[in-house]
Design goal:
citrate CoA-transferase activity (chains A, B); seven-stranded parallel β-sheet; 15 helices; Glutaconate Coenzyme A-transferase; lyase (chains A, B); homodimer
């Protein structure tokens, strides 16, 4: 890693001003950074250079990469709609290795345990570093300071913003698709690897120099709907298998059976009811985890009980949201990714189940986006601190083990609630200071724990709303004291000075840096 | 008009190299001009500058224009999906006049007789010139050399290309919408002024500096589907009425009853059948005129008779195409604009009736487009010449009375057929040289007239295919001789040297110039 100037940003974190030799702006505060310049744009193409019959098929991914001009130092992107069932990303770098290409940047919209083989390519120098979330083994590898470049973590919206603004320039985007035609029109709705939306690849298709669509389900033109537009695609490739279906979407969605989590879910739903958040026409977003799923179910019950209807629910969709839609408890699902087969079916069949993208939902450098219009958002976190700052990427031992997803973007919602256990395996969740700040406390409104609910003092309206309720409202300090009493003062992680990854805010500034774990 | 250098282009026409003080490239031949540079892009916006609740409503169009920074010399765009029922475009320039703004450029995707009042604004200097098709009175005004600047005529695809490439920079786009929400999501499917698609406004929404959505049918967020994405919109305005429904779409589509036209239609369909063009999975596009409608009906009969199915039909959609879709005679309608209420209904209800845009269908500076994939295209023309060059914008008296529409773009199809009467009111249609070249003869394959069919000698394959048929195949010279014998040698228009408008080719080059008519 190159020598670097460090500065203290607006949340008091020491961050680099140079990331992989690119100057970066330290976080200035929410809404404080104003972008300059124009959106990135590709070199103007001409139909004269594309086949008149629309057939852009090339015989293999290798040939497509060669035609796309794969060479040392390029940035190659992939999407994560196949989650842990992706079969394409690893192949790209295997091919690069075979061709003797070095120093690539991999810019996935997220990485999964199935991408552990990329470590081999990081070791050999085929891949220089990863710009994108690093779950599990890749995160551990990065945490231990083994990656040649800095990891760069962005939210889904931040990734769109960075690509749109030209901060993250993609040379070649490889978009694996459950259905596509030879022209490059593609969607995630049909075929054995159906995953629902392909929205995470939208920016890649619009802004990459070269775009390759890879499918195992070639349709005659036109492949409809064109979630990815063939007019943005250079080459199409047919392969035997783009993904492992059972690792892409689950056949069923499991609600949590853990009594602790059910208690958190119920408490969260109760809070929303007592605070008057569940109103006719309200909107909400709950994640895909067991607790969030359960909250959705409680919301549905509350709506039914009170004869109310939600205007829209944001997905991650699953069978519970689909049930709400089909029962008329919500008018629309605005869906960014699809977590089970019922979600895929609904997206295919129901015009009120609508595909969204990080552009519509999360891009902070747009003329507005959907995130700030949502009434209630339920999110997770690994840690929060006394200022309500929260962490979603590192554990309290310092290890970088999770991506940001849409988490930072969702903080723009009107009410942000984090239902969290007070401790996990005797490690308390509320800290004096979080290991990594991913979201500034001013945007986090409520922490719901099994031993009480802490409301951000900035939200006097919420404090007033539940003043006369029977809810166990406490200060966050009280909750922390209680946890520390039970668990004892938590051990601090042993971290080196060396920065291994940067965490970007939704506006492209650097909100925190992740440091090497001393093992 | 400024002094200008004139050059002879690749089709032998004398064209200006400077249009309204902007350097322009003369036509170099089909597929010969290669663009340089990058696509245009807007200044990066920030959510910090847009309302968090997504409510972008301002009280009036006037206030929206003021907020958008309306000032002298700006380019203001509108779309023509309301056709002759548009109530918004005139208002924009009335407001500009009221505000004392001068020298505007109006860049409509097309203009209609209802826009005749713009002549007053051209006279007073509020509008400097029009970049877009000029039908009827506006065309006559331009033809007589009365417009301060040069008219610039582009095809639908050429307009997308020009906006995308930054040749046509739009300061403020005003997008009237039959349905919209306060965030700016808009579509043409619902409400009293439902017009089907809003695709002609897509480029405007993506590339204009400021985008205003005007609606008379405000929906709660989200307005679905978002043919125009609110994320590209700056301001929304609610007005009483955006258009006059009966002038937007007709309740019914009328097939021609003219025996001459029916004969042309039948002959065209017969040609397609005999030439083997009507195959399982073939695709076609026929315009909205009476003759074209009838050809569509003949195609449907042929498909039914032979147990065949078309893969897709390109619209302009109407009830006959919708019937084909609903009867399974075509699998998809890929629709650019909607001509009757049945088309609107189908677009709303049938997922196989798909909205397209000039980007998907026509943009020559894309990575391919749909136009070149279509098997058979049926188009009109005002004139053709012995080299099969054709004219769609001027009449033989020199008057500029029509826009190009998608005509130039459609020439990319695999077989382009022009069914034309041999003469109109004793004015022969086949000329030694067309008054204005809109499409190079090498792209036009077949002329079908009531007295014979001329096949372009470049299409030996088609000549061979119908060699043994009973079709009256003649040379174009024979057809011309026959027409001249009946009508006498046609009078030539009296044209001055002064150029009043330029006709762009699909790649942005200048294919011809329109000269002042000496009256």
């Amino acid at each position: 890693m190159s020598e670097n100037s460090l500065v203290t940003n607006a949340v008091g974190r020491t961050v680099p001003t140079l990331i992989n030799n690119v100057p970066s702006v330290p976080f200035k505060g929410v809404g404080k950074h104003r972008p300059t310049g124009r959106k990135h744009s590709i070199v103007i193409p001409s139909c004269a250079d594309y086949p008149e019959d629309g057939n852009k098929l090339v015989p293999s991914l290798k040939e497509a990469l060669i035609k796309a001009g794969l060479k040392d130092g390029m940035t190659i992107s992939t999407h994560h709609h196949f989650r842990n069932g992706d079969l394409i990303a690893n192949q790209i770098f295997d091919i690069a290795a075979e061709l003797g290409v070095k120093g690539l940047v991999w810019a996935p919209s997220a990485s999964f345990p199935c991408h552990e083989p990329i470590i081999g390519h990081l070791e050999s120098g085929v891949v220089h570093h990863i710009e994108g979330s690093m779950n599990g083994a890749l995160g551990r590898y990065c945490s231990e300071g083994k990656m040649a470049g800095l990891g760069v973590l962005r939210s889904h919206g931040g990734r769109y913003q960075a690509i749109q603004d030209g901060e993250l320039h993609i040379d070649i985007a490889v978009i694996a698709a459950p259905a596509a035609d030879a022209f490059g029109n593609a969607n995630g709705l049909y075929g054995e690897t159906a995953c629902g939306s392909l929205g995470f690849a939208l920016a890649d298709s619009e802004y990459a120099d070269r775009v390759i669509v890879v499918t195992d389900n070639l349709q005659p033109f036109p492949c409809i709907p064109w979630q990815i537009q063939g007019n943005n695609v250079d080459y199409t490739v047919v392969v035997d298998k783009v993904g492992i279906p059972e690792k892409i979407v689950s056949g069923t969605t499991q609600v949590t059976r853990s009594p602790d989590r059910l208690f958190l879910a119920e408490m969260t739903a109760r809070f929303c009811e007592e605070a008057g958040l569940i109103r006719e026409g309200f909107s909400f977003q709950a994640g895909a985890g067991g607790t969030s799923l359960s909250i959705g179910i409680y919301f549905a019950e509350l709506l039914k009980k009170n004869g109310l209807r939600s205007r829209f629910a944001r997905g991650g969709s699953n069978k519970y949201l689909v049930e709400m839609l089909e029962q008329g408890l919500t008018e629309y699902i605005l869906d960014g990714q699809t977590f089970d087969l019922e979600g895929v079916r609904s997206l295919r069949e129901n015009p009120n189940h609508v595909v969204t993208s990080p552009f519509t939902s999360y891009n902070y450098h747009g003329k507005g986006n959907f995130a700030s219009m949502i009434d209630v958002v339920i999110l997770g976190a690994t840690e929060v601190d006394l200022d309500f700052n929260a962490n979603v990427v590192t554990h309290s031992d310092g290890y970088l083990l999770h991506g940001i997803g849409g988490w930072q973007n969702c903080l723009a919602a009107k009410c942000v609630i984090l239902p969290l256990p007070l401790f996990r395996g005797r490690v308390p969740v509320i800290r004096d200071a979080v290991t990594t700040i991913c979201g500034p406390g001013e945007m986090i409104d409520v922490i719901v724990t099994e031993r009480g609910i802490a409301i951000n003092p900035l939200r006097q309206d919420l404090l007033d709303a539940v003043k006369h309720s029977s809810l166990p409202v406490k200060s966050i300090e009280e909750l922390k004291t209680e946890a520390d009493r039970i668990c004892g003062k938590p051990a601090q992680p042993i971290l080196g000075d060396e920065i291994v990854a940067a965490v970007k805010w939704v506006d492209g500034t650097v909100i925190d840096a992740v440091r090497k774990v001393i093992t």
